[in-house]
Amino acid sequence: MKKILPLLFCTAALSLLSGILMSKMSFIARTSMNIFRKKYQYYEFMRTWWQGALAVFAVLLLLLAFQLYIKRKKSVLTATLVQVCCFILALAGLYFTYSDFRHDLSHRWVGERFHLGIYIFWINWAIISMYILLLKKDKGTKDASNKPASVPQTTPYIDLVDDK
Fold this sequence. Notes:
The protein is mainly α. Helices cover 65% and strands 0% of the residues. Helix 1 packs antiparallel against helix 3 and helix 1 packs antiparallel against helix 6.
C-alpha cells in the first residue's frame, strides 16, 4: 500500500484537474446541452467540476484496482503483458480522442479546456500503467510462476541401530 500512495495522490490531483477543466465547456457547448437536454442528459455530470472529478477518479480507481490485482495474482509474464496492453490502450485512447476533437466540428466547439480535461484522463491512465509496470512485486504476495515443484514424499530417516 505504501508503494502506491504517491500514485493515488497523483491520480487524485490529476482527476481534480481533469474535472475542473471538463466543467469549463465553451458557451456554445453549454447552450447546446441546455437546448438538447434530453439527448445530452448523460453528460450532465461534466458541467459540475466535482462530479466530473469524482467520475474520473472512480474510473481510474477501478482501472488501478484491476491492474494491481493482475500484478499481484498473476505470473510476471501475464502481468507485464496486461500492463503493456493497458499502456497501449491509454495511448490509443489519447490519439483517437485527439483525432475526434480535431475532425468532428461539434467536438471542436466544446473548447480547448474541455479537451485538456479529457486528455488528462488518458495521460493519467498511462501513468498508472507505467507505474504499476515498474513497480516491484512484494515478497509476501503469491506468484503463480513461483509454485513449488512437486516434491516426492520421503519418510524421515530414523536410526534404529546405535552404531557405537
